[in-house]
């Protein structure tokens, strides 16, 4: 910032307007939205590779009255450890980056609520996931033991719960917090689109990849991953003119 | 029994806070939480000497906290608002809004 920004004194309205301009300039200098979006985008796309490497098909006994020749198959893929470590590292790296940047620029960073929310929610989601892993995948027809609740795995409530305890909570909600602390409408919109993708039960048939394919994680992680990376690119480009003005 | 008139909002403006440079310093420090001297100087378009004078006034009034240190071999001065500084800024903004309201309701308009 090279322009003189001391609020000019005139009418009270002009004074308040001058203070508003000053606040907006400080906010612009504080923002570094592209960095967490880049990390989360790379991590989400990495989930495709982890899905491919951990993919396995098991033959399990079919539920009574639904016997198929040769038994039923159950597909398992993904690693809760990948998301736990990856997300925790992403939030820690964002905190470190913000502190470094804050020292370089000489202006405090508002990201603490984002990082704290992210780490707490990663803890909650991980605890839930490890509970599910410890109790094993329910056999077809068996109820799902979720923190002592016996739920029907085929029910709509379980489908919503599964979507809720995933990246929607561990990534989407902290992004909403970041949009709030940065007072960024563009990030609010991006977080809303991300949450819609994670929470709305979209079919993945359009991708032409069957659920029994080792690459079946491509649509599930590819769409949100690309959205986050495009967001990172957009915010980085939007910050460029400000950085040029500042230098 | 005497009717007591509400004091004009301009009476409630604090002379220490209601000065354009100092109001600018408090606003930047409030948004930034912690701000470095160099950033403040550039953001407000001031000379180092001028900014120092205003910071001394604000520090004496207990509205800002100044912290001096080193980053490598570079001397750095950081400042942050004290709780009294935060309250003073909020009060100033509230008084300005009251003034606007008064002007809009037909009271005498005045420069502040």
From TrEMBL, chain A:
Transmembrane region positions? 34-55, 81-99, 111-133, 160-181, 188-209, 221-240
- Record keywords, A-Z: Membrane, Transmembrane, Transmembrane helix
Domain of life where this protein originates: Bacteria
Could you identify this protein by its name?
A: DUF998 domain-containing protein
From TrEMBL, chain B:
The residue ranges crossing the membrane are none
Instruction: Give the HTH marR-type domain ranges.
Output: 14-112
Stored InterPro entries = HTH_MarR-typ, WH-like_DNA-bd_sf, WH_DNA-bd_dom, WH_DNA-bd_sf
GO MF: DNA binding
Protein keywords: DNA-binding
What name does UniProt use for this protein? Answer: DNA-binding MarR family transcriptional regulator
Which species does this protein come from? Answer: Kitasatospora paracochleata
């Amino acid at each position: 910032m090279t322009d003189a920004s001391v609020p000019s004194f005139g009418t009270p309205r002009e004074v308040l307007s001058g203070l508003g301009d000053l606040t907006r300039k400080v906010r612009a200098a504080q923002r570094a939205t592209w960095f967490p979006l880049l990390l989360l985008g790379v991590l989400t796309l990495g989930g495709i590779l982890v899905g491919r490497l951990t993919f396995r098909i098991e033959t399990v006994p079919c539920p009574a009255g639904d016997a198929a020749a040769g038994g039923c198959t159950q597909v398992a893929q993904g690693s809760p450890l990948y998301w736990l470590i990856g997300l925790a590292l992403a939030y820690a790296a964002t905190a470190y980056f913000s502190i470094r940047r804050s020292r370089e620029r000489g202006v405090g960073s508002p990201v603490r609520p984002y990082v704290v929310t992210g780490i707490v929610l990663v803890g909650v989601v991980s605890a839930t996931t490890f509970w599910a892993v410890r109790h094993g995948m329910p056999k077809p027809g068996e109820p799902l033991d979720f923190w002592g609740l016996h739920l029907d795995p085929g029910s709509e409530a379980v489908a919503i719960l599964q979507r809720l305890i995933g990246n929607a909570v561990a990534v989407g909600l902290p992004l909403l917090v970041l949009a709030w602390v940065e007072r960024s409408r563009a990030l609010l919109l991006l977080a809303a689109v991300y949450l819609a993708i994670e929470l709305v039960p979209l079919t993945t048939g359009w991708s032409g990849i069957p659920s029994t394919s080792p690459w079946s994680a491509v649509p599930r992680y590819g769409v949100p991953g690309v959205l986050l990376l495009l967001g990172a690119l957009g915010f980085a480009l939007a910050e460029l003119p400000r950085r040029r003005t500042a230098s | 029994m005497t009717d007591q008139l509400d004091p004009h909002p301009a009476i409630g403006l604090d002379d220490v806070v209601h000065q354009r440079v100092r109001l600018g310093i408090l606003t930047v420090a409030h948004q930034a939480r912690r701000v470095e001297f160099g950033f403040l100087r550039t953001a407000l378009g001031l000379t180092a000497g001028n900014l120092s004078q205003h910071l001394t006034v604000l520090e004496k009034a207990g509205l800002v906290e100044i912290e001096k240190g080193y980053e490598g071999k570079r001397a750095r001065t950081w400042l942050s608002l004290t709780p009294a500084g935060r309250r003073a800024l909020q009060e100033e903004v509230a008084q300005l809004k009251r003034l606007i309201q008064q002007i809009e309701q037909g009271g005498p308009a005045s420069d502040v």
